[in-house]
Amino acid sequence: MDGGGSIQKRLAVNNGPLEIIYRDEQIIAINKPHGLLVHRTKIATERDVFALQLLRDQIGQRVYPVHRIDRKTSGILLFALNEDVNARLSTLFREQQIAKTYWAIVRGFTDATGTIDYALKKDNGQLQESITHYKTLAQTEIPVPLGKFETSRYSLVEVQPETGRMHQIRKHLAHIHHPIIADRPHGCNKQNRLFKDKWSMDSMLLHAKELEFKHPVTHDVLRLRAKISSEFERTLSFLKFEKIIS
């Protein structure tokens, strides 16, 4: 199974709580663990540990998060090291000039490829165009009954969101009836309970695996990759995916 790396540079992990997968004078990228918020937010006032503060303290300088991934999502998270580069990277994200690739483990057998074009509502009720592309990397069927089915089927999918709406991938995969395992509230409660009771697994299986973009200063093409988490790896193993993709 794939590790990580970059076509430009890969750094050893600094001594600290966060895995740094890329760093130069302008930008830094980490492999954010599941459950860690990017920064302080009103929706999780009980939390007092955040990626922004941890990284700032770890490298001893101010950092600027140029995008967000959900608390429950693991994977690559990009920061700028100064305000000018932060503005440039934010523009690249806004203009959809950064290619984002995720891995997800979902319920059922997905089509070989697909595009989900389904508008999503903002908090104020306004509809936003939302487009997600996916392809199936592997499928597995295991002899674990659930409900009226004697076996359980799962797919490992590679997902590339064209737009960047809140919870877009989670909502879109649920919309096509292939919810992400351990997703709450968009997932399947029966599957989530099965994974927790049978395998003690309750980490949402969505991983931000890769970012590809032109460096805002050097203009070199960067392809940054983040290793999947140990829980994601363990799930691939007990679902017997490793026989398919290793």
UniProtKB/TrEMBL annotation:
Keyword set includes Isomerase: yes
UniProt-listed PANTHER family: MITOCHONDRIAL RNA PSEUDOURIDINE SYNTHASE (PTHR21600), TRNA PSEUDOURIDINE SYNTHASE C (PTHR21600:SF56)
InterPro entries per UniProt: PsdUridine_synth_cat_dom_sf, PsdUridine_synth_RluA-like_CS, PsdUridine_synth_RsuA/RluA, RluA_PseudoU_synthase
Catalytic function, reaction form: uridine(65) in tRNA = pseudouridine(65) in tRNA
Residue ranges of the TM segments: none
Domain Pseudouridine synthase RsuA/RluA-like, chain residue ranges per copy: 27-175
Documented EC number(s): 5.4.99.26
Functional description taken from the UniProt entry: Responsible for synthesis of pseudouridine from uracil-65 in transfer RNAs.
Protein name: tRNA pseudouridine synthase C
Any GO molecular function: RNA binding
Keyword vocabulary terms for this entry: Isomerase, tRNA processing
Domain of life per record: Bacteria
Biological process per Gene Ontology, one example term: enzyme-directed rRNA pseudouridine synthesis
